[in-house]
Fold each of these.
Amino acid sequence: MSQKDKMAAIEPVRLGPNSKFKFECHKGVKCFTKCCSGIRITLTPYDIIRLKKRLQLSSEEFLAIYTEPHLLEKTNLPVVTLKMVDDEKEACPFLREDGCILYEDRPTTCRYYPLGVATLSHKEGADDEGFYFFVNEPHCLGFEEDKDWTVTEWRKDQGVDLHDEINKKWTDLVVRKRSFPPNIKLTDKAKELFFMVSYNIDKFREFVFESTFLERFQVDEETQAKIKEDDVALLNFGIDWLKDILFQQTSPEEQAATVSPKK
Ligand code: SF4
Ligand code: SF4
């Protein structure tokens, strides 16, 4: 059984914001960096915005070099995970002997660790209030350290709040899709648009400003100026637009047909 399979086999204990645990992680622990291998890290839109900026890549380049696409079983929505190095260790590409080379910009999943987040892991039950759980990897010795936390304190300490706040609209959209009846299927075009807005933000900017988008959709000048420069503003704008594409009365085909790129 692989590490990933083993993790999947563990039934999660539901934790809430006030749940308590003892934990500490520092360079002195014997297991230092062991958690950065053989792990599935689902990337959020804001993770990608930070990582591509840190690595000075376009979102397209970042996706091509560092990620793998997947389709979520229940929602049929596309997600991307960090591509681990293809060898026996399956280490994260950003891991070096002395730790993470982009620690300040590490993804949301790495910040939460050793906690997992139901919405990000797309677990059953994530539809309602959402919950946390221990990732529970046997090699993690941080639980033997004597420092007390609540889930809320841990989130604050790890800087997760900002990530969750920026990703909120996107997370709501993914969770909302989960509650749709299984017979409502997304077209390939709708999935493509979801992927572009969620993960390929530079491509979405090109789509907005270099296609007939602005002729088809009313976007005031102030918003245009903002989304031209600001990735987070563009992401929020894109998610609002996606909500119409994916969930409103108009069918995805009709909507998608109205925003064809310029030749
Ligand atoms: S991004 Fe950094 S913290 Fe996250 S798994 Fe990779 S090396 Fe570890
Ligand atoms: S395995 Fe646990 S204690 Fe060890 S470095 Fe990773 S998070 Fe810290």
Amino acid sequence: MTEPGAPRTTADVAIVGSGFAGSLTALALRSIGRSVVLLERGSHPRFAIGESTTPLTNLLLEQLCDRYGLERVRALSKWGTWQATQPRIAAGLKRGFSFFHHEPGRSFRDDEDHRLQLLVGASPHDAIADTHWYRPDVDHFLVREAAQAGAEYLDQVELTAMHSHAGCALLQGRRDGAPLRVEARFVVDASGSGGFLPRVLGFDERPLQWLPRTQAIFTHFDGVERWDRTVGAGSAVAPPPFPVDDAALHHVFPGGWIWVLRFNNAITSAGAALTTPVASAIGIEAEGGWDRLLAGLPSVAQQFRRAHATRPFVHAPTLAFRAAHVVGPTWALLPSAAGFIDPLLSSGFPLTLLGILRLVRLLESDRWEGAGFARGLADYAAHTTRELDATEQLVAALYASMADFEQFKRLTLLYFAAASFSETARRLGNESAARGFLLCDDPVFGPEARACAAAAVANPRGAARQALLARIDRTIQAFDVAGLGDRRRRDWYPALAEDLLAAAPKLGASYAEMQQLLERCGFAPPPASP
Ligand SMILES: Cc1cc2nc3c(=O)[nH]c(=O)nc-3n(C[C@H](O)[C@H](O)[C@H](O)COP(=O)(O)OP(=O)(O)OC[C@H]3O[C@@H](n4cnc5c(N)ncnc54)[C@H](O)[C@@H]3O)c2cc1C
């Protein structure tokens, strides 16, 4: 099995893949004294996709950093501290989520009721805002931190096999043309869509249950105009709750959507996720596919009229995937290796961070064998599977509603209700109320959200559609901490302290506790400099 004389590396944990997830896992494990070898097939800096964070992502990052003493990394959890401490790591300012709906072939034009918009604020001002991660910089920073913390980092490795033997895992491959052999008590697959363990252990993909087949095309651009300059911001009545471009900007149309994420280094990340029929009709994979897509979306084409791709387009013929297995006796896939659904709800980072928190906590125990450890691993796998299922089902409902933007918006509010409720519960120290990503394990919200998603996928019309909208409203009500049920806001939802204060009882908190929370989080804007 092993080439005689091959150099051997041993560690408590071998981590395959040094994206943000692999490096963060390495950092957390190092802080509890585990020896770690971090194995990367490429080298840093390198392009990576998956850039947009959310309040829940950043809270989970803070929790991970607090638990494992990662102070320098913690600064990346907010725009303000990031800019103050790591200004050389490129990032984008994300104040919220901006959605605009387009009818193919027609220029974008909305009315005072914002029929074609949804703006959801994530933060009340820039200092505590979320960010887009310029992954070449962020991942390079994190891998350097991991190496500095004592993880043995080996890049340019080509791993070809893994065998389990006597409670240990043996990884085999090559590096610099020479055989490589790594022995570890546990292997974490952080290879993302690289699918290391599914490939070497030969397991099938788990079929998607709800989502249609989707494809993606994406790259980085320069020269992308701001959307608010392209079409004009706000209205005669009021400005939008945040600058719509300092956000994850979504252009939604039947059968797909485009993301636009601006960084502070003049680069903009943009790409499209499309159902296969739409992708095929455009010929998205062929030369000129992106231009043909924009030709059908005149206002988006206007936004990109001076844009140039700064690197080649990537075409992903299959965007979503699920692995058939998540754990084995000596190994686990991080959530990002166990599946990916869609960029639509920026779900990749929070799902992965939830997984890292759970897995590293399990690896804090001294016994990595026996029934207790096996149960822990099985729990980790079950959580990961349920959360990916919930994400897939909601995203499938959103794809089914892309031609009916009112329904799309209402379903999206299910996501925002669950995410803001979970975030606030966790910030209040009431983690047990934040039952799984998208509240999928909440006995009320979970089944109701699934029923709403199932109804949307069934393409309801007339009374059935009205009943679905009403059911979504009812589902959200008890969990709404962000004024999402207030129709008078006409789908512009700023991040307001008064909404959180009014919602305190829904979280079992007092008004005073909520006030303290808002103070702790810096919700009030910092004083203007003299
Ligand atoms: C088009 C698209 C857009 C997305 N947008 C968002 C978003 O806006 N927000 C969000 O939260 N999530 C998003 N995601 C999801 C996000 O990309 C992932 O959650 C995230 O990148 C996972 O990070 P990771 O470190 O696990 O994996 P990756 O970033 O994929 O890193 C994996 C690393 O493993 C290495 N590797 C792979 N195979 C091997 C091997 N055999 N041996 C050694 N090394 C290996 C790779 O070289 C790479 O460095 C998006 C995903 C896609 C596809």
